[in-house]
Amino acid sequence: MAVDPQGTDIQKFIQEDPGGPLVMLNLVRFKEGGRASFAEYATAVMPFMLKAGAQPLYAGDGSTALVADPGQTWDAVMLVRYPSRAAFLEMVGDPEYQRFTHLRTAALHEAVMQATIPWAASP
């Protein structure tokens, strides 16, 4: 199962940059006992997010799925606003940040990290 972005994922992320801020959707499914490791990662990542100008918008546990096929529910959901894709890439490329990413990787069975693009305002 996918947990960490690969080089081709990052290249596509860069190439499809429409400019401006983005909200990153994070959906995670924990390994058995993975919540503790993920909590440690979340604590460690916060200073790097703030340095990058990111704003955590929402974090919470998954609950009742009203519409989902079997296996499509998630343990946790997070939304984080970054000022730009470049700011996100600078954060994850920081060698100090890289020192604790193993905590996230070890915690997760599966993940989705999806950049979102805001819809144009309706007239």
Automatic annotation (TrEMBL):
**Top-level taxonomy:** Bacteria, Pseudomonadati, Myxococcota, Myxococcia, Myxococcales
Tree of life domain: Bacteria
Per the UniProt record, one Pfam family is DUF1330
- Per the database record, which ranges form the DUF1330 domain? 35-111
Q: What is this protein called?
A: DUF1330 domain-containing protein
